[in-house]
Amino acid sequence: MKAAVVLGAGQNPSYGDFPEPICKENEVKVNVIAAALTPLAKARAAGTHYSSGGAYPFVAGADGVGHLDDGTRVFFLLPKPPQGAMAERITVPNGQWLRLPDSIDDLSAASIANAGMSSWAALVQRARIKSGQAVLVNGATGASGQLAVRIARHLGASRVIATGRNEKVLNALGADSVVLLSEDIDAFEAAVAEQFKNGIDIVLDYLWGASARAILLAAAKIQSGTPTRFVQIGSVTGEEVSLPARILRSSGVEMLGSGIGSLSLEQLMLSVSEMLNEASSAQLSLEYSAVPLINVGSVWGLKDGRRYIFTMK
C-alpha cells in the first residue's frame, strides 16, 4: 500500500510503499480518507516530540478519518508504530477510534480534530472550566488557538482574551480583548497585567517561551484574589522558561500540562468525541487545502501558514 514514510532521523516523509497492516484481536482496520498535517504530526515525524517512537521506518501522521469495511465513518488517534495516519490503510486498537457524527463531513473533521481536541481537553479535563470564568488564550492566531477562542466561549467563558503576533487575525477572532505580542516583551507583560486586574481564571498557553513567562509574572504581580490555572499545551516559541520561585509562592497560579501523558487516551478520545459532536453548534471550522498524499514530499516543509489535509486518493 502507499503511505507517507519516514526513512530516517531528520528526514521528511516521502510517498512510497509500506507493508499492509495485519489486523489483530481487539483492533479494527480503517480505510483512511484524510489526515491533517498538524504540528504534532510534524514533531513526531521529526523525532522531536516527547511521544515519538524513534524506530525507522515508520508512517507519518498522528490522527485522521476513514471508514471501516462496513462503511462506518470514524476518527482515529495514535495508530501503533510503525503505523501512522498517512497511509491507505491502518489498524487501530479499540478505544482509539470513534464514530463520526453525521453533522460533520470527513475533511472538516480531519481539519479540526487535533486542533480542537487540544483546547477542549485542556479546558474540560485539566482546567475544569465553569460557566462565567475568564479565559486567556496565549497564541490565539494559530489553528489550535483560533478554535480555542471559540471553544472557550462555547463552554461558557464570560470573557475571552486572545494574544498573538498576527494583528489582522487577532482582531478577527471575536475575543473580548486582544493583546498584541511584539518584540517588546515588557509592554506585552504590562498589557496582560491590565487584563489580570479584572481576573483571569484560566490561561491556555500554546507558545511557552518569553510570552508565557510574561503572563506568569503579570499574574503574580496583580493580586486580584482570583486563582489562575495556567495550562501548558504547546511550545511554539521555546522549550524552556526560567521562572522566579515567588511566582508560585506569592500568587494563586496553578500550573498544569495538557497533552499525551498528562491525559489518558480515554480522556483524549472523550474530548475529541465531545468536541466533534458540538462542532456544528459551536461553529468550529478551519480553512484548509486538501492535497493528495502523493504530493506529501513537496508540501511537508512549506511554511506558508496554510493548513493542509492529505487525502489518500
UniProtKB/TrEMBL annotation:
Q: Which domain of life is it from?
A: Bacteria
Q: Which SMART domains match?
A: PKS_ER
InterPro entries referenced in this protein's UniProt entry, alphabetically: ADH-like_C, ER, GroES-like_sf, NAD(P)-bd_dom_sf, Zn-ADH-like_protein
MF terms from GO for this chain are: oxidoreductase activity
Q: Where is the Enoyl reductase (ER) domain?
A: 8-299
Record-given protein name = Alcohol dehydrogenase
Q: What is the lineage of its organism?
A: Bacteria, Pseudomonadati, Pseudomonadota, Gammaproteobacteria, Pseudomonadales
